Amino acid sequence: MRGQVSPILSAYGNVDRDLIIPVYQRNYDWRIKQCEQLLVDLEHLILTDQPKHFFGALVGKPDDSFTWVVIDGQQRLTTVSLLMLAIVHTIRDSGEGDSGLARRIQRNYLLSGDSTDNPRFRLKPVKHDAEAYRRLYGPEDEFIETSNLTANYRYFMKRIPELEVTPQQLWGGIERLEVMILDLEAHDDAQRIFESLNSTGLALSEADKVRNFVLMGLPVHEQTVVYEDYWNRIEQNVEYDTTAFLRWYLTAKTTRIPTISAVYDEFKRYARDQGAVGRELLAPIREYADIYRQIRRADTASDAVNHRLQRYNILRAEVVLPFLLPTFSDWRHGRISEHDVVESLRIIESYLFRRWACSIPTHALNKIFATAYRELTRLKGDSDSFVDVLAYLLRRRTRTGTFPADAAFTEALRTRDFYKTKREWRNYLFECLENLNSRDSRDIVKRLEDGELSVEHIMPQTLTDSWRRDLGAEADVIHENWLHRLGNLTVTGYNSKYSNVSFKKKQSIENGFLDSPYRLNRELKTAEVWDLDAMEARTDRLVNDALKYWRYPETSFEPPAPQLPVETLGGDTNFTNRVIVAFEFNEVQGTVASWTEFAQVLMKELLRIDRERVLAFAQKFVEFHVGSEPNMGRKLTKIDNGFYWNLQTSTREKVLTLRRLFEYLDLDAEDVLVTLRPTESENASERQEEEAKSTYALLIKFKERLETRRGASEIDEEAQQILAEFTGEVMKFGIEDPMGVLGSTPMEFAGDPERVTAASEQELLALISGVVALDKVFPGSLWRQVANGNLVDWLGRLAEKS
């Protein structure tokens, strides 16, 4: 085997060389995600004027002088071929640029020979891919839309005109892509090498990849400094669970929650957005790693904070870290007080425990705490309490995000099975009920884990005759209802072989209730009998203690403008009679005019993630059509080429279909956040569907989201995204001369209330367009019209007239 690093184009060899994918290889399966990464890398390579970019390895074996059999690397070669073809077609379709370049790319790297009637393709894909690839060179109506090759080619065709570089520059980037080309020799066993390349081994962790990404581009002396002073300290602080820590760090910084396997890709995206390298990139990560260590070890400068952290750590609730990390950073830098941190931990502890006690599923917590810090800092004014805003944010959650109030919490405490449950939560329960807020505490959790104590039933799991006498005629009913309830459970140090003995015996044995030092067993020392009345009385006392310890937070905070409720797509809410305003999923977020628009945009994102499996799902249900354009009799909406969906259905049916699809794709519908209007009303979603057909629906749909920023002092990141989206929609209306329509500057027109009140649709549209145009010259102009409420008022008037 011979190998060297060379430009990827050298793999295509001379003009007559064919690249053969052998039949034992799988079909082409790179998705849009990988294509997107290639474009990002190429664009970065060009804009930063880097000499080259390494693109992995290719392994092949010459079959003869004109044929190279690809053993490994078909995904890269096929993707680059698709990109080259898209560049050729983009140049030709636009009629701009170097037509000679398009011919050279096609002749030297895509086709063999000059025949256009029966072209020979340089790349010979495997199996069904070959036909899909061949058709990309012909009429568009003959494309195989179910193929990944077609989807990725279409993605390149769409994205190339949107890049900051020209097709000619993009080609220059491809010329600077380098790969390690390994040429097998006659004596090499191609099949054994293929098996070896694709066998399971000890792969690099996501943290390993991040470390290499950060360090490899630095000078050698700088690598050593950055490794020792930054990376090594990060790993020590997080006890080498670095991938998991980086996942929570990225969530805290971006409000997106990457999967463990996507941490490296998300980190690269984060690093590009930061525009930082080396120590500058790792400095904030090192700070958060130090905070992470303090949280995990309950080792801060405050005894009060440490006391709260010790309780919090029993729960192992890492899901809260995206909120805690920046919160503790604020405390470290003097932006909030020790009291703020203590009370925040108390509120979070209450929120988590009340939800657990009430058996509320936990999956919504990921998104809640991923976005909580961003929401809090957006809403908090200079005079507002950090804790008050946090309490407001958690109290306003509904359904899967709800903060159970006292009534629901009390009912759960009285009736829930607290024995057959997760050990750490049960241990935490008795730790807190024993010690409450006392500093004179007993380490219940440690003694339970060490086996010095055990959680025991006072009334035993098996009733003896003496127990039946104590319980009376309703013994079996009482036993069935009360066995695992809080009032009948405690911690003891006596031998479990005494579990079924009489109550009097349990009191008097060694380490029995009479000798118990624990507050949990207060009633058990003095009770003459353990019957229904005794269990109810003890329950009353424990419930009262629980309500004091896990308090429902009070808050006086009111946001400057009404806030919109946010729910997840998961759960059992069918959203009937609800009006959707916006949604967020992964990196996709947007304002929508209807549930239909939401369904279309979300389905397009799912196609981007896993087109093959989405199409497989669609073929199982009659509401979809996969393939060529359906007949006119079916009322189907085109979602993408070769994919159609019947969206003339109820909101409930759309939501249920999406939930089924998420389950099929092994995705969590809880990751989809849906922003709604605050109130429900009969047939609201149907009315919204009609309103979405109005002339200015593309603009009016922003009204509710912009209303939440009325009175805001500073623009936040989410508001910037909303305005960028809004600006794009305004541009579609093409008002080229707003001042000509208004007869004055936009600001002069806006300053005259009578003219605004009497404005026509065209004048309102010109006013909005004029402010958007002004914002490009004087940044902040559009935001000021949002903050003072003018833009929302203009949109309201436009809605009335349309």
Automatic annotation (TrEMBL):
It comes from the Bacteria. InterPro entries: GmrSD_C (IPR011089), GmrSD_N (IPR004919). Residues 14-214 form the GmrSD restriction endonucleases N-terminal domain. Coiled coil: none annotated. Residues 404-543 form the GmrSD restriction endonucleases C-terminal domain. PANTHER family: DUF262 DOMAIN-CONTAINING PROTEIN, SLL5132 PROTEIN. This is Uncharacterized conserved protein, contains ParB-like and HNH nuclease domains.
